[in-house]
Amino acid sequence: MAEKVEYPTVKSRTLTLTHDIPISKTKKYWENLRNGKVYALKCMKCSKVYYPPQADCPECLTSQMKWIQLSEGEIETFTKVSLKPQGFEQHKEDFIIAIAKTPEGAKVMGWLENINVENIKLGTRVKITAKTMHDGFPAIILKPT
After folding, report:
1. How many CB atoms neighbour CB 17 within 10 A?
2. Phi, psi dihedrals of residue 128, rounded to the nearest 5°
3. pLDDT band at residue 1, thresholds of 50, 70 and 90?
C-alpha cells in the first residue's frame, strides 16, 4: 500500500460563482415565480411530470410538453437550517426547508413557513406558492393548509 504524501497548502479566499442561466425554454416558470405561482412541465406523450421543468422529455424524447401549475402537496421530509450556506448568510433566523410531493407526482423543495419545527408532521398538507426574497431572488414557499 502506497504511503499518503502530505503537501503544504494555504487556504484560498472565499469564491463566489455567478453565471447566466439560459431560460428560453423555461421562461414561463421563472415569470410565474415572480407572480407567486409554481409550474412544472408534463409530457403529452408519456404523462411524466418534470419539476424543475425540462423542455424535453428524457423518457420518450419528445418536446410535446404542457405547463401545469403545482399548487398543493404533502410534506415528505424537512430540515431546520441553522448553518447558512453561501448566499444565505443574510438570513439571521434559522429557517425550515421541506420537500412536498404533489398529487401530480412532482417533488417540490421550498421554504416551509408559518409552522414551528416541533409541529411539523410528515404528510402535512401544504399550499405551494412563490415569492421574491429580500435579495431579489424568487423562492418556493410551502405553507400548511
Report:
1. 5
2. -105, 120
3. low
CA pair distance 36, 84, nearest whole angstrom? 24
Say what the pLDDT of residue 6 is.
Answer: 85
Q: What amino acid is encoded at 61 in this protein?
A: L
**What is the distance between the alpha carbons of residues 20 and 43, in angstroms, rounded to a whole number?**
27
Measured CA to CA, the distance from residue 110 to residue 108 in angstroms comes to 6
Q: Kindly state the cell numbers that stand for 43.
A: 409530457
Q: Give the domains, in start order, of the chain with CATH numbers.
A: 27-144 (2.40.50)
Query: What is the predicted pLDDT for the residue at 111?
Result: 96
The tens digit of pLDDT for each residue in 91-106 reads: 778 899 999 999 999 9
Nearest to 55 by CA among 89, 30, 83: 30
Sheet holding 38-43, edge to edge: 49-50, 38-43, 65-70
Of residues 35, 72, 33, 36, the one with CA closest to residue 53 = 33
